[in-house]
UniProtKB/TrEMBL annotation, chain A:
Family matches, as SUPFAM superfamilies: AttH-like (SSF159245)
Protein name according to UniProt: Lipocalin-like domain-containing protein
Any Pfam family the entry gives: CrtC
Residues covered by the AttH domain: 72-251
UniProtKB/TrEMBL annotation, chain B:
Organism: Elongatibacter sediminis
Its membrane topology: Multi-pass membrane protein
Subcellular location, principal: membrane
Name of the protein in its database record: FtsX-like permease family protein
Coiled coil: none
Low complexity composition-biased segments: 116-130
Keywords for the protein's UniProt record, in alphabetical order: Cell membrane, Membrane, Transmembrane, Transmembrane helix
Residue stretches spanning the membrane: 20-38, 251-274, 294-325, 345-367, 398-416, 422-448, 468-486, 704-725, 746-765, 797-817
């Protein structure tokens, strides 16, 4: 059960895109019911896809690449960065893949041309700057045109890309990685390396989602050291800091009675990494949030946290883009004797993409290096006021 | 209020007069509003520019060789290099199973741009961009796909939402989906993968749309383009507004013509209702109603009619515009490759001008008759308004004014440069003709009367009474003549133009077969060398060139080639040529320009033009007819073309051989042995048919409006004559008391109106000819840059004569039946009452 929720959040964004299809001006069919919400899509069970199962061990480098037989997949990188003047910056780069037809259907009616590829990609790229937040979104189909594709993910040598937004190994090994993305007049170019390995989440890389056994395959690299430059309004800034990569693939997520989540990924000054989330129920009176937490120790070993003992308290709600968002928290985890305040570094880190959400840099403050650090917070499913 | 009530009570006794007045106002409005709305809609579309949903491309990347497509890998490389403002497109025209031509535009909606970093969504030019992207996932981009269509186009095709269109090759397009707000106009839009699949043509792109980017990135894009591609900014493309200006002016002119016809009829109707109520007005004045009160009541009555008439006219106009807009859109799409939107609601702003014009015209119409009615002497019964001497004087004045207008028309014909002047001249010609009509008719009747011996009293009376009839009927006759002259002139012009185009096509299309698959030229040459050595294949090249007119303004010119062989050079119909033109052309020292380039762009024989940097300036040595082409064209030798554009492959080629060649056999053999697509081999007849079809489309809407004008004039004349005739009771009574039977009286009436009709038609024919000549030699050359000889054709006149005569006969017979059944004593009593 380690760390599955943020991935749900990420999957939501992609799937929400699919669900929103009938909303095109002039294309909407009044007969099509609107999607109930993002989670309804995430919870959709579609037959014909390969299902994530416990017991399947992950294989590298093969599992760095795409898994087209699964419905959903993503490569999700966040980085907490500092420039030479000590100012904090943030970077988010995400590549989502979704299949529009199960493998069985692809066999019976193969695509007539590269445009009809059943693999569709979406990418988000955002920079949090001291002067504001910038985000971009792109879509592409995964079909091969004369040997070229606009988007894809090769396992070896590793390269995940959409147009010129690329995360790729720079040598014959998995690490170091290079991220490069340009969304004029902004861009990023980061070298990512680490002396520590991957972290398999959940049970050997299977993250359980339901009591019934559903879940996803999931691994992370929370120990990446980033160095490079950001370009903002054509101006280049040298930066360095901590980065966190998540990889997950599955074919079905979540329950229909859940409304959204609050997700925290924290780089503590002690060298530990902490991930916490809580999924809020659609009807607060019918149940309590589903909480999950894991402490990844500096050596890469994981310590699952007892959900019932994690205490979340919202200190301030801030209006952002028409939503009242909890951007200031106090979190207590008595099990490991941690108490800290999590505060959004900049309130405006709103992802104004097709299905908007808040994702951005947070500072973590408390007593001592075990209670202080930086991180990323993701907030989804808050209703517009 | 009581006065207004008394005034309106008149219409209860004579409802036909109310109908007549209302119809006249409606006629004045409907077509004017309709054409104004169509033009306003088109102008709004041009102002918005080329749009894809609500995104506006700033240009396109096109293959340097128009016949070649864009390899998909070229597009992929641009995207992978970060040019995210480039979107692949496949534009094509297909035929449905029932032969309808469809313009299709396919795009990859997933590649459409949206607001990015540094461009917060709220400040982005397309706030809805994100919606398009999410839409990309929906039915549009995923099986079974959708073909987006504007509601107007759907109606035009007679299809229902969700229907599937079957193409001529038996394949089905994805289901139609109505997209009211997508600015699709005439085009249908679908996913690029779906279209490639429907056409069985994977890997084909026609062009890449380029969306706004900063100048540095645009420059980088241009730099990154491979040699086979070039960037064409949208602002160097011909401005659709300029390209189609003449077309819209013609539409506006048709609307104005209908308006003028309506104004004539309105004036006539108003004059009638006032004269007819002369006695009522006098009695009201005698009973103490002041002139001011009466005037106010008359104005209130006018406002009432005007309000109802304009409302009805505007409604009909909007209906008409909505009905005609898809037709206009089709013409613009197929003729100019300009796509306008078909909105469900038309811009109401366009209503103000027609309404203001109607109100002004109504005031102008009412001034004279109202003043006359109000200033009529109170004592003693008012004399007839239509006193012979007064109407004769009026007609003389009209004649003089008409002559002035005709002289102005002549002057405009001599000096017309632009379409505006040409159309103003045409208006002067039409109005002048109409104004001269009563005096000419009066003169003709006088001459006829002199020719009739005194013993034929009945005939003499008939002629004298006809002259009197000219008083009340002249305006209706003028309206009729106006519409008839316009109709006959347009018909003659269109007929002549069509014949000239057919001749020109016969001469131009010298080769029996044309091929457009340039990629297969080598294979075709090999096949010909083995199987048909007598057949020659000649390459035809074409490109577009951005250049400047002699006055310095930018223009895009088509450049085409003409092989030196005399068999080919004879295919060019010259308007004019310099000395030794053919020799200078063949030697590469001169070029020919199309008539449009001469008339509209300003080049003339002897001018020099720059073709490209590697060729010295060329002299214009000839001007040729190029009917139906909305673009100006230059013609050069293939050698010069190869010198300037060595990288361009031929767009098509032509096959020629001995006369006894079995061309259908050659065509079949080429298709079967080389696997050429049947669509890529076009025979002469097919090309001619396509050329004539283009021609017919050009005049489709003009024709429709022309017919409508005639129809409204017919209705107007019918109303006018009916109204006049209702008030001929006294004459009928007199004739009856003189012993004439009902049948004799009926015959006399028909004879009288027939005489007026025939005399008026006698005017229509020569003036129709003059108008046709004016359209052929002044308006069309100024509007389109095409001139052609006039051909006389009697058939339209015969049709017109039949139509107008039947309209007159009907109009006379209907009220006459009542009159003829009424005993003379009752008639006399009614008249006195």
């Amino acid at each position: 059960m380690k760390g599955w929720l943020p991935q749900h959040g990420r999957a939501m964004v992609l799937l929400a895109g699919l669900a929103a299809a009938p909303f095109l001006t002039g294309c909407s069919n009044p007969d099509d019911p609107p999607p109930r919400d993002d989670f309804a899509v995430l919870a959709r069970a579609e037959p014909g896809y390969r299902q994530a199962r416990p017991g399947r061990s992950l294989h590298f480098p093969a599992d760095h690449g795409a898994h087209p037989d699964y419905r959903i997949e993503w490569w999700y990188l966040t980085a907490n960065l500092r420039d030479d003047a000590g100012r904090a910056w943030g970077l988010q780069w995400t590549l989502f893949r979704t299949a529009t037809a199960p493998p069985s259907a692809r066999d019976t009616s193969p695509p007539a041309n590269a445009w009809q590829s059943p693999q569709i990609y979406m990418a988000h790229f955002a920079i949090s700057t001291p002067d504001g937040h910038r985000e971009a979104q792109r879509y592409a189909r995964g079909g091969l045109h004369d040997g070229l594709a606009r988007a894809g993910a090769n396992a070896w040598p590793f390269r995940a890309w959409l147009d010129d937004w690329t995360l790729a190994s720079t040598t014959g090994d998995w690490l170091p990685l290079r991220l490069s993305a340009t969304a004029h007049p902004d861009g990023a170019r980061l070298e990512l390396d680490s002396d520590r390995g991957l972290v398999l989440q959940g049970q050997n890389g299977f993250s359980r989602k339901h009591a019934g056994g559903g879940g996803s395959h999931y691994y992370s690299h929370p120990f990446l050291q980033a160095r490079g430059e950001l370009t903002v309004d054509g101006r280049t800034i040298a930066v360095h800091g901590d980065a966190w990569l998540d990889r997950e693939w599955s074919s079905q997520f979540l329950q229909t009675d859940q409304a959204g989540w609050d997700w925290f990924a924290v780089h503590l000054e002690s060298g530990e990494k902490l991930m916490l989330f809580r999924v809020r129920p659609r009807d607060p009176t019918s149940g309590s949030p589903h909480v999950h937490g894991v402490l990844i120790q500096a050596d890469g070993s994981t310590r699952p946290l007892e959900p019932d003992l994690i205490e979340f308290r919202v200190l301030t709600r801030t209006p952002v883009a028409g939503h009242e968002l909890p951007l200031h928290w106090r979190i207590r985890i008595p099990e490991i004797e941690r108490v800290f305040e999590v505060r959004a570094l900049y309130p405006d880190q709103w992802m104004d993409v097709d299905f908007a959400y808040w994702e951005g840099v947070v500072t973590v403050s408390g007593s001592g290096p075990q209670n202080s650090g930086t991180g990323y917070l993701e907030l989804t499913g808050y209703p517009r006021q | 209020m009581r006065i207004l009530h008394a005034l309106l009570a008149h219409y209860r006794r004579h409802p036909v007069q109310a109908v007549f007045l209302l119809t006249s106002i409606v006629i004045a409005n409907a077509l004017l509003v309709g054409t104004q709305l169509i033009n306003a809609q088109a102008r709004a579309s041009y102002a918005r520019g080329e749009q894809l949903l609500d995104l506006a491309p700033i240009g396109e990347i096109a293959p340097v060789n128009p016949a070649a497509g864009i390899p998909e890998s070229d597009y992929l490389r641009l995207r992978l290099a970060g040019f995210d403002f480039v979107v692949p497109a496949l534009g094509t025209q297909v035929r449905t199973a029932d032969g309808t031509a469809l313009e299709l535009l396919a795009v990859d909606a997933l590649a459409l741009p949206r607001a990015g970093p540094g461009r917060p969504a709220s400040a982005a030019p397309t706030p809805a961009g994100g919606q398009h992207q999410s839409a990309a996932f929906g039915g549009f981009s995923l099986p079974p796909y959708q073909v987006l269509i504007a509601p107007g186009r759907l109606r035009q095709l007679g299809l229902a939402d969700g229907a599937r269109i079957r193409l001529s090759d038996g394949l089905d397009l994805p289901p139609l989906r109505v997209a009211p707000d997508a600015n699709l106009g005439h085009r249908l839009m679908l996913d690029i993968g779906a279209l490639q699949s429907a056409l069985g043509a994977p890997g084909t792109l026609s062009h890449l749309l380029v969306f706004p980017a900063d100048p540095g990135r645009l420059a980088a894009l241009r730099h990154a383009l491979p040699a086979n591609l070039h960037y064409v900014p949208a602002d160097t493309a011909p401005d659709p507004g300029e390209l189609t200006r003449s077309f819209h002016l013609n539409l506006a002119a048709m609307g104005l013509l209908a308006f003028v016809v309506g104004v004539f009829l309105t004036f006539n109707a108003l004059a009638f209702t006032y004269t007819d109520r002369g006695e009522l007005l006098r009695r009201l004045r005698l009973s103490g109603v002041s002139r001011l009160e009466l005037g106010a009541a008359l104005i209130a009555e006018l406002v009432l009619f005007l309000g109802a008439g304009t409302a009805l006219g505007a409604w009909l106009g909007m209906l008409l515009a909505a009905l005609l807009l898809p037709g206009v859109g089709r013409t613009l799409a197929q003729l100019y490759e300009v796509y306008i939107a078909y909105p469900d609601t038309l811009a109401p702003g366009a209503l103000w001008l027609p309404l203001a014009m109607t109100a002004t015209a109504a005031v102008a119409c009412v001034l004279h008759p109202m003043r006359q009615s109000l200033s009529a002497p109170l004592l003693g019964r008012a004399g007839s308004q239509w006193r012979l001497s007064a109407t004769a004087r009026r007609d003389r004045r009209g004649f003089a004014a008409g002559l002035v207008l005709l002289a102005a028309a002549g002057l405009a014909a001599q000096n017309a440069r632009g379409t505006g002047t040409a159309l103003a001249g045409m208006a002067a010609l039409l109005l002048g003709t109409a104004l001269c009509l009563p005096a000419v008719l009066r003169g003709l009747l006088t001459v006829l009367a002199r020719m009739v011996p005194a013993r034929h009293a009945r005939s003499r009376w008939l002629l004298a009474d006809s002259r009197w009839l000219l008083g009340p009927a002249s305006l209706a006759l003028m309206a009729m003549v106006l519409a008839l002259v316009a109709n006959s002139g347009l018909n003659t012009m269109i007929g002549s133009f069509r014949a000239a185009t057919a001749d020109w096509l016969d001469q131009r299309l010298a080769a029996p077969l044309y091929l457009r698959d340039a990629d297969r030229n080598q294979a075709i040459d090999d096949w010909l060398a083995t199987n048909a050595p007598d057949i020659d294949r000649i390459d035809r090249y074409r490109t577009r060139l951005e250049t400047r007119r002699p006055d310095g303004s930018a223009v895009r010119i088509e450049v085409v080639t003409l092989p030196g062989d005399p068999a080919w050079s004879n295919t060019v119909q010259r308007v004019d040529a310099a000395d030794a033109a053919a020799e200078r052309f063949d030697s590469g020292q001169g070029l020919y320009i199309s008539e449009r380039a001469w008339r509209l762009d300003g080049w003339a024989i002897g001018d020099t033009v720059n073709l490209c940097a590697s060729v010295p300036p060329l002299t214009v040595v000839g001007i040729y007819h190029d009917y139906g082409n909305p673009h100006s064209q230059w013609m050069i030798t293939p050698e010069l073309f190869a010198h300037c554009w060595p990288q361009l492959a031929p767009v098509s080629s032509a096959l020629r051989g001995p006369e006894d060649t079995d061309w259908p056999g050659v065509r079949l053999a080429l298709v079967e042995s080389l696997g050429l697509a049947p669509d890529d081999i076009i025979d002469q007849a097919g090309l001619k048919a396509a050329g004539i079809a283009t021609f017919d489309r050009t005049f489709l809407v003009t024709d429709a409006l022309n017919l409508l004008t005639l129809l409204v004039a017919g209705i107007g004349v019918f109303c006018a004559v009916s109204a006049i005739h209702h008030h001929r009771i006294f004459q009928q009574a007199l004739l009856a008391s003189l012993g004439l039977t009902a049948a004799e009286r009926g015959a006399l009436m028909l004879l009288q109106w027939g005489l007026l009709g025939v005399l008026a038609l006698a005017l229509v024919w020569p003036f129709g000819m003059v108008l046709a000549a004016y359209l052929a030699s002044v308006v069309t050359p100024a509007a389109f840059g095409w001139s052609f000889p006039l051909r006389l054709d009697w058939t339209p006149f015969a049709r017109l004569a039949l139509l107008s005569t039947s309209s007159l006969v009907l109009a006379v017979l209907w009220p006459s039946i009542r009159l003829l059944r009424t005993p003379p004593a009752v008639m006399l009593r009614e008249e006195r009452a």
